[in-house]
Design the sequence.
């Protein structure tokens, strides 16, 4: 099990967290086109390499946090 | 009883305790042994040489390595199959039996396989049993009888065998392997200030020093003293079986007093891998005949267990360890008839004898009589843990073995000992000492300014490349794969190591390649005209050693949740309903009666699992407006409102009511199953989208015991236990909230809502008093006919009322309009979660709608999930269905295509049994009191 | 909250014999075993939420991950209370049974100017168990992946992590030099947590010891 560096609690087992995936900015709902909205809902980069991810520390501080993870090697670091 | 005819006089390094004699059983006969004996050493001391039958040909098998990896003595101990007989210590009264032999070890009918061996070539099973396909079940039954392995008792296992445990540890430095290198590295790391754990597969530390000479034993004594003083935690009879990301290391610990096995999960800052070297068998004809052993096996037998392994031996040696075995044999009184020195190009052609060694044939046809053949032809480096960490094994033809490619190792993994190189004991110790200090430094146990430890290079001794002799023999002793099988595989085109492995099953048996993988690769390399490096190895994956499923599963424990009223439910015969982690009362034996009690009198139900969030702050209205599809800005203090949440794709996420308890104080309720996810959802919007909003969220689901009091006489019942709250319809109307004292308990929250469709009050009581309030309500309402009702009755009641359940009447694709929530959705709000999608959906019109449905035959209750079919096309499904005790007919909710959603439309329901029945779409979702008069009364 | 005459019940069934102390049904069992587990649910538990950095945080004086024992005047008597830095901008205050009214009163008064503070009584919403004995860390190490070593989790440390698969608050609170942990979880899982610790502690001879108020 990999470790996730929580800025509040320190490194913890990934099992304590909920995976939130790549953070996608929410388009302005008043002006967003359908294409923009679908992109926000469904399109992700799915990089092989360093990626930025959101995790929620469900079993710990209950904070949402951002982590950089290499999807090939599972190296992690705080952004 | 048998006698220990082959037991030697006391040996200097022996591990048996002659002061503790004991007896155990082998195939029903009693055998003597000493404490410290393994099953195999005790049997060998009594002259036994055959311990099992081989996998495919059922040939007799004896000791080969006399260690954990020995493929020849895997046995059944009581209820426990597949026990490593050369590793498991004997205990008094232990019942040991040979596995998978019938009718006996001495006469095994399946040995007929041996006679037809030429009909069992490589890939035999694939070739023979693949066609005709319909015969597979028959083949399977026959093959299973011939398969290998012990017997698992169908009865529940004894507590000793079924008790597993887990432990989590955080060593700075974890050392895998307790030979001289591992012991030294552990001591060095501990002295540098690290918390160290040392794990050894065998029952004692010291590795090969244990069967060495006087100097070796003296060095071992010194190392043990240093270790004892170092504070290192030592786990013997334990094995590191996996190394995972971020140095998560899995260890199985055996032989504990209270549990059968314990899974130790270590999060190590640095891992030192020092498994030593494993001796390689030699491939030649007859190499699996009982009496053919490796040099380390005879040295273990003589020096550790004081067992004379034979009377007359021929030794094939290519290294100093083989030479030392000759010395040990002679000292033990074994006549060494001939030494074949492979370094001079000499060789063995074949072993003579079938049930046991009778002699050998040398090059040139010369035969020598003997009962023991010892081979010392080289070493295999067990690199498994290192390759799990990412290293790529590199073959060195000069040393005739693999080494770890250090360039590919992560910083937090360091190898030590024989896997790195050779050299004198002093050189190995100096190297391991530096590795231990560096491991501690990398673990952060020393000051960061401390320079990296200079790790000296270890010399690598030259060793002849000896894999097989001039004849064919067994390569994989566990799977009965011969060198001839490998050649067949190559001829048939399976020329890569990975393919030949799968085709022949070589390296796939219980020894998992530890003994045979280098020989497999060497033979394939030779057959394909490539080098060993070009051929490549098979991939080593976890586990390094076999692990029981029990150890992986650990103790069976799943979090469960109970309401404060659970003891009452149990006492009153509630049928338990498992809902997530909650154990809830489904019914008390008569759900229909419970429904009628609510419709006609009054009932109470335990709804504690309903999610509750305490919301405080000036920006709560903004939050509610964002999360619910309906409008929330004007909720007055003392009011509650029903709301529905959608996700950003417009799909219904959850529903519930939220009440305003004070100026800046709200209580939000969610569905029971959504309690945790809605809380996370709320936090996500607050933390990531609106961090500036002033709102504090505290989950209080289990702070309150929640009781719904429902039915026409609920006001009367509640009036008897509430003193200070005016319950009259004028003072406490529908969709209002009050706080106060109930049955003597302060701090209760009451809201007037009605999931059941009846006049009802939902009480939220400080949980420690929940049982008291529950019992008080029942006691106080005897004359009113009060009755507890369960989830099943509630589901019927709400279905009669046409209230949807999120997740039952909606699914992961149901958008809010399809759920019939048109009246609730306020697209004129600036923004709410899911609004954009709902705007577009409103333009496009929903593809399906939630409707009420009555089967025309009132007695038919279509199963939930039954499909609606028109003109051969699926046009919907039944989402909820029950027999209504109130209406004496079946009632349903269904999702139907919009064109069939008009009231009065006739649709066809296809039942699971294949029948089709007509049903009519009703005017309202509700079948009982669609106007809501009862609710508002 | 003055719940006149009504007995409060913990989610953990008291080991027989049962007695009423401080308005709670508790176990009268007394154990001198080297490893004990006690249901401390009757303790008052109040949660505070405020900005992680701000006037309220300053007044509480306890950082996230630490515990402070203080003497507060509750009503007309001096009481020992424990202030736990249980999360970022989140505190848990433990006091003697039945002290929630005065605790909430004091804590509400503590709110810093302009700082939004939520004070929520969780006395009935959390189960609290104390595990005491030199083997306490070994027992807990079966249930949590947290490093319980002195360098990471010394006396006076607090953390929230998975314990027996539950999100739990753990407080290292040694008693007279003996290892002791308070473990808190959602009330509904209290019995499960208690049973898990009893099972994990079985090999060390764990016994149930009854709650004696104020026991803080």
Sequence:
């Amino acid at each position: 099990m990999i470790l996730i560096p929580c800025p509040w609690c320190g490194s913890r087992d990934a099992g304590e967290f909920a995976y939130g995936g790549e953070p996608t900015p929410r388009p302005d709902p008043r002006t967003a086109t359908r294409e923009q909205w679908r992109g926000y809902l469904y399109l992700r980069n799915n990089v092989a390499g360093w990626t930025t991810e959101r995790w929620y520390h469900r079993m710990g501080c209950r904070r949402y946090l951002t982590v950089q993870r290499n999807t090939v090697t599972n190296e992690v670091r705080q952004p | 009883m048998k006698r220990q005819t082959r037991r030697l006089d006391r040996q200097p390094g022996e591990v048996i305790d002659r002061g503790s004699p004991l007896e155990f059983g082998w195939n029903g006969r009693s055998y003597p042994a000493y404490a410290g004996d393994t099953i195999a050493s005790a049997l060998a001391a009594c002259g036994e040489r055959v311990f099992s039958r081989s996998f495919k040909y059922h040939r007799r098998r004896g000791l080969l390595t006399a260690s954990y990896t020995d493929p020849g003595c895997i046995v059944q101990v009581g209820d426990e199959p597949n026990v490593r007989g050369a590793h498991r210590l004997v205990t008094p009264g232990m019942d040991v039996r040979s596995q998978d032999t019938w009718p006996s070890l001495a006469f095994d009918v399946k040995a007929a396989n041996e006679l037809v061996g030429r009909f069992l070539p490589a890939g035999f099973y694939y070739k023979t049993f693949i066609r005709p396909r319909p015969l597979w079940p028959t083949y399977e039954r026959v093959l299973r009888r011939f398969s290998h392995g012990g017997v698992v008792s169908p009865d529940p296992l004894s507590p000793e065998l079924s008790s597993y445990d887990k432990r989590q540890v955080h060593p700075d430095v974890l050392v895998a392997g307790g030979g001289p290198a591992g012991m030294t590295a552990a001591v060095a790391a501990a002295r540098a200030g690290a918390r160290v754990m040392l794990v050894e597969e065998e029952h004692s530390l010291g590795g090969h020093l244990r069967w060495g000479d006087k100097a070796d034993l003296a060095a071992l004594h010194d190392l043990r003293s240093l270790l004892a003083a170092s504070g290192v935690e030592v786990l013997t009879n334990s094995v590191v079986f996996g190394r995972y990301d971020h140095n998560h290391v899995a260890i199985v610990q055996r032989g504990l007093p209270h549990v059968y096995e314990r899974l130790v999960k270590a999060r190590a800052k640095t891992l030192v891998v020092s498994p030593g070297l494993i001796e390689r068998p030699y491939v030649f004809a007859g190499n699996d005949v009982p009496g053919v052993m490796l040099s380390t096996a005879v040295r273990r037998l003589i020096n550790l267990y004081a067992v004379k392994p034979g009377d007359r031996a021929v030794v094939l040696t290519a290294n100093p360890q083989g030479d030392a075995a000759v010395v040990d044999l002679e000292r033990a009184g074994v006549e060494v008839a001939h030494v074949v020195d492979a370094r001079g190009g000499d060789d063995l052609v074949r072993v003579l004898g079938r049930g046991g060694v009778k002699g050998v044939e040398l090059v040139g046809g010369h035969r020598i009589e003997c009962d023991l053949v010892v081979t010392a032809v080289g070493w295999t480096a067990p690199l498994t843990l290192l390759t799990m960490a990412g290293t790529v094994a590199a073959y060195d033809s000069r040393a005739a073995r693999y080494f770890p490619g250090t360039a590919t190792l992560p910083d937090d993994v360091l190898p030590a000992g024989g896997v790195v190189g050779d050299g004198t004991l002093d050189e190995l110790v100096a190297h391991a000492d530096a590795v231990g200090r560096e491991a501690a430094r990398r673990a952060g146990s020393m000051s960061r300014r401390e320079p990296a430890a200079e790790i000296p290079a270890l010399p690598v001794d030259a060793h002849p490349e000896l894999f097989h002799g001039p004849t064919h023999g067994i390569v994989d002793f566990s799977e009965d794969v011969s060198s001839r099988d490998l050649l067949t595989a190559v001829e048939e085109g399976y020329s890569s190591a990975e393919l030949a492995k799968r085709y022949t099953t070589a390296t796939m048996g219980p020894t998992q390649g530890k003994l045979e993988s280098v020989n497999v690769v060497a033979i394939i390399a030779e057959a394909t005209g490539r080098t060993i490096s070009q051929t490549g190895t098979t991939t080593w994956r976890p586990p390094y050693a076999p692990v029981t499923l029990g150890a992986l599963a650990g103790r069976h424990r799943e979090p469960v949740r109970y309401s404060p009223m659970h003891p009452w439910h149990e006492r009153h015969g509630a049928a338990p309903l498992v809902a997530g982690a909650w154990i809830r009362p489904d019914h008390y034996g008569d759900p229909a009666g419970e429904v009628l009690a609510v419709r006609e009198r009054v009932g109470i139900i335990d709804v504690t699992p309903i999610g509750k969030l305490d919301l405080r702050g000036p920006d709560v209205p903004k939050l509610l407006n964002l999360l619910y599809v309906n409008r929330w800005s004007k909720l007055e203090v003392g009011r509650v409102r029903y709301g529905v949440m959608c996700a950003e794709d417009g799909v219904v996420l959850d529903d519930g009511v939220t009440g305003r308890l004070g100026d800046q104080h709200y209580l939000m309720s969610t569905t029971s199953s959504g309690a945790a996810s809605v809380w996370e959802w709320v936090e996500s919007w607050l933390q990531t989208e609106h961090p500036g909003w002033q709102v504090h969220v505290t989950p209080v689901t289990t702070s309150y015991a929640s009781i719904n009091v429902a039915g026409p006489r609920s006001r009367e019942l509640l009036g008897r236990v509430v003193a200070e709250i005016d319950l009259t319809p004028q003072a406490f109307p529908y969709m209002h909230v009050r706080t106060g004292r109930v049955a003597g308990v302060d701090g209760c929250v009451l809201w007037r809502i009605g999931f059941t469709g009846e006049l009802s009050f939902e009480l939220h009581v400080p949980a420690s008093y929940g049982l008291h309030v529950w019992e008080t309500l029942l006691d106080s309402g005897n004359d009113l006919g009060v009755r507890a009702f369960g989830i099943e009755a509630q589901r019927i009641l709400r279905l009669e009322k046409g209230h949807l359940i999120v997740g039952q009447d909606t699914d992961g694709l149901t958008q809010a309009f399809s759920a019939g929530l048109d009246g609730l959705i306020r697209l004129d709000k600036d923004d709410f979660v899911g609004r954009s999608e709902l705007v577009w959906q409103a333009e496009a019109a929903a593809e399906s709608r939630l409707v009420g449905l009555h089967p025309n035959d009132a007695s038919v209750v279509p199963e939930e999930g039954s499909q609606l079919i028109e003109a051969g096309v699926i046009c919907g499904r039944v989402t909820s269905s029950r027999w209504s005790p109130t209406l004496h007919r079946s009632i349903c909710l269904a999702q139907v295509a919009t064109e069939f959603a008009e009231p009065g439309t006739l649709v066809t329901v296809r039942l699971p049994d294949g029948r089709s029945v007509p049903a009519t779409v009703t005017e309202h979702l509700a079948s009982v009191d669609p106007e809501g008069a009862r609710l508002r009364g | 909250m003055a719940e006149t005459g009504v007995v409060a019940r913990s989610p953990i069934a008291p080991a027989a014999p049962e007695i009423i102390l401080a308005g709670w049904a508790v176990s009268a069992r007394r154990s001198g075993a080297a490893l004990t587990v006690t249901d401390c649910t009757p303790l008052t538990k109040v949660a505070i939420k405020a900005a992680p950095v701000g006037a309220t945080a300053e007044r509480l004086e306890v950082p996230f991950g630490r515990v402070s024992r203080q003497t507060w005047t509750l009503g007309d008597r001096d009481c020992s209370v424990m202030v736990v830095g249980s999360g970022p901008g989140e505190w848990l205050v433990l006091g003697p049974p039945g002290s929630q009214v005065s605790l909430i009163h004091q804590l509400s008064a503590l709110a810093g100017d302009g700082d939004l503070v939520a004070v929520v009584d969780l006395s009935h919403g959390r189960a609290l168990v104390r595990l005491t004995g030199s083997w306490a860390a070994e027992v807990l190490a079966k249930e949590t992946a947290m490093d319980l070593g002195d360098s990471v989790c010394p006396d006076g440390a607090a953390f929230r992590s998975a314990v027996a698969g539950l999100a739990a608050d753990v407080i290292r609170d040694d008693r007279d030099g003996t290892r002791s942990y308070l473990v808190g979880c959602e009330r509904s899982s209290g019995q499960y947590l208690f049973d898990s610790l009893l099972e994990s502690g079985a090999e060390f001879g764990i016994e149930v010891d009854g709650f004696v108020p104020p026991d803080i």
About this structure: The mean pLDDT of chain C is 94. Chain C has two domains: 9-42+125-208, 44-121. Chain C touches chain A at residues 64-65, 87-88, 90, 145, 159-162, 167 (CB under 8 Å).
